[in-house]
Write a structure and sequence with these properties.
This protein is an alpha+beta fold and 395 residues long. Helices cover 31% and strands 19% of the residues. Strand 3 and strand 4 form a beta hairpin. The radius of gyration is 23 Å and the shape is globular.
């Protein structure tokens, strides 16, 4: 008996010693910023200096407080960028500073751009939002999803199943055309009758992008360049695979950046297309947001449709409402439209205040940067009160 107690005691002691060793290793090697991280940004003439100073302080606090490699943010008021700055590292190991020009994945924010591009096709009569998608996608023509509509895809009420994570391999395929990657769900049963429930599925926007490709007769990337990037002068946005990006990071332990970072595994988002294939900068995201608010990205009635709350309840969503490609609701008493995004090596947030003409984007080059969306909310409310801001965009 004494021998058993002794053995148990030794095991416990060794386990405690190992835990202390691991904890010591984690804490000694976790900090990304042993010195203050560098800041990159250009002053904007006429910008509200006091608010810019506050924004700089908040961005730095996010990077150092959450132990992020870096984060970049931009704000547009009345269609004009009044602040854009980056703090931290684009490459921690090589000490390459992050800058406002640094490209990062934007994850689910891609859906907002996809919805606007599809809205443009619909307003010209080229795409019927309520036509069955099987009409455009031969791979699904005889399958369970054939009668689902593009509108239902954009609303996430289609019943199409969720993506099965790494096991499905969609982030490792390479799709020159989206339609070639649809075989994985062609025969899959729907989870519920279309229009009866809300449930997020990345496949919804993969399919919506495939429909847009088929209607336009061009690859999805070319479609976005034609419909959004060129007319809106979005020179810092493109398919993830088409441009060089910053190094993408992943929390080393427990999905918590405080425990240190590691370089994320390589992935290819080409097959995600309309669901998450884009990389951009916060500057370009607020240019896009400003164009949405001004009715320049699409007709005002199209934007109003995308931003109209769904009649169906959305479990877990702020205010319980979603639009088409966007979340809609109120923050700090202000009408707000937003889309957050997460991808391998990225946390991103785009916030619009339609009644104030404010667009804010914050992006960090690490997954699970929990403070990114709250900072976007804070910055939006900070700059909406800027007394020297230019006039609001036209309704």
């Amino acid at each position: 008996m004494k021998q058993k107690i002794l053995i148990v005691g030794v095991v416990v002691a060794l386990a405690a010693l190992a835990a202390l060793h691991v904890a010591g290793w984690v804490m000694s090697s976790a900090s990304v910023h042993s010195v203050p991280p560098p800041a990159q940004g250009d002053p904007v003439p006429g910008a509200p200096a006091a608010k810019v100073a506050t924004a700089q302080r908040l961005l730095r606090a996010l990077v150092t407080g959450e132990n992020l490699p870096g984060a970049s943010a931009a704000v547009a008021v009345g269609g004009r960028i009044v602040w854009a700055e980056a703090i931290g590292w684009a490459d921690v190991e090589r000490r390459v500073p992050l800058s406002p020009e640094s490209w990062m994945r934007i994850g689910g924010i891609t859906e907002a751009l996809t919805a606007v591009a599809i809205g443009r096709l619909a307003e010209r009569g080229e795409l019927d939002l309520d036509a069955p998608i099987g009409r455009h996608l031969p791979a699904l023509a005889s399958g369970p999803a054939a009668a689902v509509t593009t509108r239902q895809l954009l609303a996430h009420v289609s019943g199409v199943r969720r993506h099965r994570g790494q096991d499905e391999g969609i982030r490792l395929w390479r799709c020159a055309e989206i339609a070639r990657g649809l075989g994985a769900i062609a025969a899959e049963p729907l989870r519920f009758a279309p229009g009866s429930q809300w449930a997020y599925s990345a496949w919804d926007y993969v399919l919506a992008g495939a429909v847009a490709e088929a209607v336009a007769g061009v690859p999805f990337g070319e479609l976005l360049r034609r419909e959004l990037f060129a007319p809106l002068a979005l020179t810092e946005t493109d398919l993830d695979a088409e441009r060089g990006r910053v190094v993408a990071y992943w929390p080393r332990m427990a999905a918590d950046t405080h425990f240190g970072l590691e370089v994320a595994d390589p992935v290819d988002y080409a097959c995600f297309a309309g669901a998450g294939a884009l990389a951009s900068t916060p500057r370009d995201l607020v240019r896009f947001g400003a164009a949405v608010l001004a009715g320049e990205a699409a007709r005002p009635e199209t934007i109003a449709l995308l931003h109209t709350p769904l009649a169906i309840q959305v479990p877990g969503a702020e205010d319980g409402v979603r639009g088409l490609g966007w979340s809609v609701g109120h923050a700090a008493g202000r009408r707000t439209v937003w889309r957050d995004g997460t991808a391998v090596g990225t946390t991103a947030s785009l916030r619009l205040l339609p009644d104030d003409g404010v667009a804010v984007a914050v992006v960090a080059n690490v997954t699970f940067a929990k403070g990114v969306p709250p900072l976007a909310v804070t910055l939006a409310n900070l700059f909406r009160e800027a007394p020297s801001s230019p006039p609001r965009p036209r309704p």
